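Open question from group meeting: does this chain pack into something compact, or does most of it stay loose? Before anyone orders reagents, we agreed to write out a predicted structure and look at it together. Recording both the input and the output here so the notebook holds the full record.
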Amino acid sequence: MNKNRYLAKQTSDGGNAFLAHLKSDDLEEAIRIMDETRIFLKKDEFDPIARILEKEADDRQAKGDIRWAVRLRRRAKALKVSQAHGQNPEKRIRRVVLPEGYNGKILLVSVSVRQVWEMTCLRSGDDWHHKILQATEEEICDYGFPQANVCPVGGAWIRFMTDGAIVIYGTSDDFGECDKELASRLIKRTFPEWKIFKQR
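Structure tokens returned:
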């Protein structure tokens, strides 16, 4: 087999394997194949899969299964981002998930992918720190990194005050106290106009 024919076959095989992994929701493996074989799929090859995920998300939401609807929408979003940016986790995983006005528990988590990339993220959204961790593990998986290592590195509480201040205080019974200075820096990136205060 001459070189051009070999490369064409490799690209074709890679494309088929890539699409198979996309359809089975294994985005991390799909993108690894894309990177290794240097295949480039056109937008019209990504879009049908993303539309299937979005339709399934709509169906789940209509049935009241909000959790799975959210997860499927994340997967569709990850597909679209991976088309433009490949396997770059920075483009898919938000550093901070914290709605303005939130009063409750926060958790710092370390996320590492294949021991070559790591970042610390801040997450919120539940009455229990261990539930925030569980939701974060699902989120990272949905964004295409099922093998990622998601480790808690401490928790706290947060309160948005009416005077434009954010107060970080307390600790986590499950995971201990987070680095409040790091939490403050992460929050400041998302809410640069707010004043942030740290308390014990």
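Observations to bring back to the group:
The CA atoms of residues 129 and 173 lie 8 Å apart.
Strands lie at 103-113, 117-124, 149-160, 165-169, 195-198.
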